[in-house]
Amino acid sequence: MSSATDSAPAGTAGRPANSVPEFRAEIREWLKAHLGGEYARLKGLGGPGREHEAFTERLAWERHLAAHGWTCLGWPKEYGGRGASLEEQIAFHEEYALAGAPARVNHIGEQLLGPTLLAHGTEEQKARFLPPIRAVEELWCQGYSEPGAGSDLAAVRTRATREGDAWVVTGQKIWTSLARESRWCFLLARTEPGSRRHAGLSYLLVPMDQPGVEVRPIVQLTGTSEFNEVFFDGARTDADHVVGAPGDGWRIAMATLGFERGVSTLGQQVGFRREFEGLLALARRAGALDDPLIRDRLARSWTGLEAMRASALRGTDPSVAKLYWSHWHRDLGELAMDIRGAAATLAAGEPYELDAWQRLFLFSRADTIYAGSSEIQRTLVAERVLGLPKEPRP
């Protein structure tokens, strides 16, 4: 495999850290030149609730990005990245979204596990796992939530037992995005018998393609199956595939959650803005702007979008940010249904074909649940941000 520096675009090496406008122009021109031909039809495809759209083609596109040095921008150069500044990373995600480029398929590996390994992994783990993430050769999924331990992650019951040179994993994970397409899963398992809550958990890297791993798709309200159940029944992974020390998994898992709400959310907000502008155009065509209540809700939605961006640039607490954007997006889906009126209740085609607004309404119900439910986020804000007394624990 070639190194990242072998495939980096010409002219980027040694670029001054304060040349963000030049960097923005560079990615804009590259996307204009490359997001055409065989990739042109991918514009706007994919994303939450639409991960089924042209997945194989989007994977090929992301490998094309990697071959030209546009993956893992913020990683240090010695680990295959480009050492891009925070401002440059924001510029990339915004320009990527503005170009209508397809939703990424390697987000979990690049934005979650990669930074976690950079911060807490051994040099051997970095050498083994970072290069195939950067090249989009190995996709990852996240094994956190379980039945009875979704938002309450510390109630994890999946267990892993050390047997010689391996960990043997038994348990069930649920709501696992992209589990069918992933070659690896990073998961939280209880490795100390009798431990409770945050103690005794370990952060393991487990191969998916092996006996003892079963993936069952979950059919969602949208009729698609982005989420899955994953069953581990004696699945094995090497003893050195534990990130951090055994029993220190909670700290590592929290670090991953912090990376999950990073700079890529600004690109997400560009998508939100595009949805809002499309809804505003729909309201004009439908005559819904004659309704003062609809006008007021649209105005509130726009001001909420502006506040969201300002808060993200200021570095708002991750739990506050997640609460804000998830409820804003859910409310936008509800507003879309009210603007469309009775037509919103009819499927676009047989047997259950949905249009973009129906899919937005249905899938955005999950926004307030995945990546930490609103109830849990409010508790975190109360305890960690406002300093209020902690809730009683069982």
Automatic annotation (TrEMBL):
Residues 247-386 form the Acyl-CoA dehydrogenase/oxidase C-terminal domain. Residues 23-134 form the Acyl-CoA dehydrogenase/oxidase N-terminal domain. Keywords: FAD, Flavoprotein, Oxidoreductase. Residues 141-233 form the Acyl-CoA oxidase/dehydrogenase middle domain. InterPro entries: Acyl-CoA_Oxase/DH_mid-dom, Acyl-CoA_Oxase/DH_mid-dom_sf, AcylCo_DH-like_C, AcylCo_DH/oxidase_C, AcylCoA_DH/ox_N, AcylCoA_DH/ox_N_sf, AcylCoA_DH/oxidase_NM_dom_sf, Mycobact_Acyl-CoA_DH. Its cofactor is FAD. Belongs to the acyl-CoA dehydrogenase family. This is Acyl-CoA dehydrogenase family protein.
